[in-house]
Write a structure and sequence with these properties.
heterodimer, A: 62 residues, mainly alpha, 2 helices, 69% helix, 0% strand, B: 407 residues, 14 helices
Chain lengths: 62, 407
């Protein structure tokens, strides 16, 4: 199923390069957002504090 | 092994995930794309070079989304500066790419690009080490901890004297700065990135810190936000040229997405100055790698012209066949082929000696990049795990102290 998608993408790169460009961009962006959300949940489940923290540079900002 | 349908070759899947993971950790931590590490690493594992840059650019967009997501939550992203920066970057990259094409036409692109690389990386590394150790000495003398230093004399001048409208106010960094200053720096870094054919994050982050006076962590987050946009454009552009192996980019992104989370999370547990120190070390290693490549080029010059002439005159090879034989990556198969032609057919062992030195130095420079990517990411993982464990211990200690007070 997944391999069929990539084979279809390879054919698209030859037949319709513009559409392939958009396919690359949307696949990467979509996958990036999905993985970011999933890993965010995993990190929360591991009990890592992802909230606000005291930054060392704040005292120095004008 | 997996079959790469666009490139039409078979290769193992794990090197792509590993490279993606390592560069993801490093990119998330430093706010860079890491193309200067990805391309030689892909070459070592036999990834088709025609698709290396495009595939790297494509996965960069996805990876930067993951890293920016986390930096955003930490409050490390200045949207206004990133948007002004992107205008200058695109203009600079375009001019740089045109310059590179002109240099390529003249046949001097390789050495010119490498000399710019060496001067830039070497100069930057020396300045960053000097800045780190000068501040470390000052911190020790005053008895305070070395955390981060916002601003330099140059950035103060930019903030106070360069009041050319329109002025931009950045809420995150609390700085008011002329948009022209940002556009100028973006153009300059974009120009260099365009000539070198890389993203230029390793140059942009120090410029944001030293010239625009941004805190290190905000420079890292802001640069990553900018890479989301430039990476998406790069992915689209290379995709339209058919130079992206989508399966390869997806495998790299899977590794990079996990790595980017670790790298970004690590910035929470270290001080800004420590990020600068590690970036200086990375830049130095990259500089050593390019120096080795330049020395290798000098060995290549000693035999290449005569070798191509002999291939045509003595062996009757056509120009395309000669290009096919002499061009491309220096792999073990290429070395065996060169032995066949240089020693067995042309009886020129001196040429093969020069080729062997070129082969050794080129591969050594690639292994330095791969080794530093793996070593650095392992060290960053260690820092991240140590930070998480310390944080947990502090939390448990606070809970225990609270319960004792309640009793």
């Amino acid at each position: 199923m997944l391999m069929e998608f990539f084979t279809w993408g390879a054919a698209l790169s030859k037949n319709n390069p513009v559409a392939y460009g958009f396919l690359v961009m949307t696949t990467m962006a979509g996958l990036g957002v999905s993985i970011a959300v999933v890993i965010d949940l995993i990190i929360r489940l591991l009990g890592v504090n992802l909230g606000y923290y005291k930054k060392e540079f704040e005292d120095q900002l004008h | 092994m997996v079959y790469m349908p666009v490139a039409g070759v078979e290769m193992a899947w794990w090197p792509l995930v590993l490279i993606g993971f390592c560069v993801g950790v490093i990119g998330g931590y430093f706010g860079i794309g890491g193309a200067f590490m990805v391309t030689p690493s892909l070459n070592i594992f036999g990834f088709p070079m025609a698709y290396a840059v495009g595939t790297d650019q494509a996965h960069l967009a996805g990876k930067s989304i993951v890293a920016t997501f986390r930096h955003w939550k930490f409050g490390h992203v200045s949207v206004v500066i990133a948007f002004v920066f992107i205008i200058g970057t695109f203009a600079g990259v375009e001019v740089g790419a045109q310059t590179l094409m002109w240099l390529t036409k003249k046949g001097i692109a390789g050495p010119v690009v490498r000399w710019i690389y060496i001067a830039l990386l070497g100069g930057l590394a020396i300045w960053m080490f000097y800045d780190y150790f000068a501040n470390l000495r000052a911190a020790r003398q005053s008895g305070r901890e070395l955390t981060d230093k916002v601003g330099t004399k140059l950035s103060e001048w930019v903030h106070t004297k360069l009041n050319v409208p329109p002025m931009v106010y950045c809420k995150v960094t609390k700085i008011r700065i002329s948009a022209w200053a940002i556009v100028f720096i973006a153009c300059l870094t974009g120009l260099v990135a365009g000539i070198l054919g890389v993203g230029g994050g390793f140059f942009r982050v120090p410029c944001m810190v030293y010239v625009l006076g941004m805190p290190t962590k905000i420079a890292v987050g802001t640069d990553l936000f900018e890479i989301v946009m430039s990476g998406a454009y790069g992915g689209l552009s290379y995709g339209m040229k058919g130079a992206v192996e989508l399966l390869g980019a997806t495998l790299m992104l899977v590794g990079a997405a996990v790595g980017a989370q670790i790298g970004t999370l690590t910035t929470k547990y270290v001080f800004g100055f420590f990020i600068r120190l590690l970036l200086a070390i990375t830049i130095s290693l990259a500089c050593v790698s390019v120096v080795l490549k330049q020395i290798a080029y000098y060995f290549e010059v000693t035999y290449m012209k005569e070798f191509t002439a002999l291939l045509t005159s003595k062996l009757g090879m056509k120009a395309a066949e000669v290009k096919n034989l002499t061009g491309g990556a220096l792999t073990a198969q290429k070395k065996a082929l060169m032995y066949q032609y240089m020693v067995e057919k042309l009886n020129r062992p001196d040429m093969f000696d020069a080729f062997s030195t070129n082969y050794l130095l080129t591969n050594l420079s690639q292994y330095i990049m791969l080794g530093s990517a793996v070593g650095l990411s392992l060290f960053l993982i260690f820092l991240c795990v140590r930070g998480i464990l310390r944080e947990r211990q502090e939390r448990l200690a606070a809970v225990a102290a609270e319960s004792q007070t309640a009793k």
